[in-house]
Amino acid sequence: DAKTTQPPSMDCAEGRAANLPCNHSTISGNEYVYWYRQIHSQGPQYIIHGLKNNETNEMASLIITEDRKSSTLILPHATLRDTAVYYCIVRVRDDKIIFGKGTRLHILP
Amino acid sequence: EPEVTQTPSHQVTQMGQEVILRCVPISNHLYFYWYRQILGQKVEFLVSFYNNEISEKSEIFDDQFSVERPDGSNFTLKIRSTKLEDSAMYFCASSGDRVNAEAFFGQGTRLTVV
Is B86 helix (H, G, I), strand (E, B) or coil? Predict the structure, then answer.
């Protein structure tokens, strides 16, 4: 079973920042936090990952709390193309990925 | 940007027939995976493959399934005798280039068993 808890759905206005929360209170010291998304029935798309420091790339930012028990994925300027199911995953490097139900993000025009 | 390639994109087969789904992982990756997603359900892990052998498999991956890396570039999933309930999207993924640990997924093969 997935080791993370996410809200089943969220709405965000186009152009605003989308903040997707994730709880992973049982995370181990060697587990990373990964975020993926799935647009319709396409293959899951890697977004970002981190261990304990905050991370930013061209797609998103990842904020991990100091105790590592929760994190937030931030899409800074959401567009309609960001409508997708977002998965928060904890994973040891190179281990299999276990998907939960994720958060269905609706971007509203 | 390198990507995982899967063929065919859609396959229709009769119940009881064998199918082979093909994947070309990213060239310097070391770990390979198959997943499936039944329509409307979550993505499920099937099997992981490393160093030319299965490293882990799920309960779904029974004797009807097998995987192979026949030539150092392709990674295949074979279903020996398909059942109606094998109808799903099948995703291949690869990871592990010794520097980065992200897993990248292909666009999937939609398998329809009739």
Answer: helix
